[in-house]
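Example (one chain per record):
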Amino acid sequence: MARVEVPEGVWLRCDGCSQMIFKKVLEENLRVCPLCGHHYRVDARARVAQLADTDTFEEFNAELVSTNPLEWTDSKEYSERQEEARKRTGLTEAVITGKAYIKGRPTILAVMDPFFIMGSMGAVVGEKVTAAIERATDDNLPVVIVTCSGGARMQEGLVSLMQMAKTSAAIARHDDAKGLYITVLTDPTTAGVAASFASLGDIALAEPKAMIGFAGPRVIWNTVKTELPEGFQTAEFMLEHGYVDRIVERSELRNEIARIIDYCGR
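Predicted structure:
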């Protein structure tokens, strides 16, 4: 029998169940394994397409780019890392923001990208998130932020860390104006992002088995020598302990966000 050559990249082995998946089926299923339900990470543009009504997303502040305030140099210049990330993702930074309609509901939407320097938060990410929240406050609209981040961007030092306070202050003003803020926590949501705007939603949704927390298990062990509970820092653990309000399958996120907006009268 003649050997049939399968083009490279047509199939992949699932990270969750180790079964072979037809890549086209995975994409059609919103990058969720149809066999075990493993949720793969999604780039920001794809996430917007999954959540927003067709052709309704109007991006703003797309032109903002980070500088190199500390003149950071290790094995590679920080500016080089940024340029590589821009070419690889087609984005200017690790978050995109804009106005969109979600099942007909006008919304300010911000989506982080895990493939742009691991969705880390520097000055531009903080500025774009803050501006999105302020736009929602000014226009009396709900704000939805999809988080996916390794935390504050170390190459920007204190400039990065101060974005935690900046974004949190914008959320406080949005709350004072009776605005609705929904967070969607995806894998991973950690460190400075988890400790700031990701944790301040009026309603916190999470995708199944997403890693959510501040420091990772290895860092915690090396610091305080504490054994962690089984399943620590999973979305399911966070739901059980009140950090997350609901775990929602990716295919149901649009419906769930629309229901929350309607329920809250926004």
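Caption: The radius of gyration is 19 Å.
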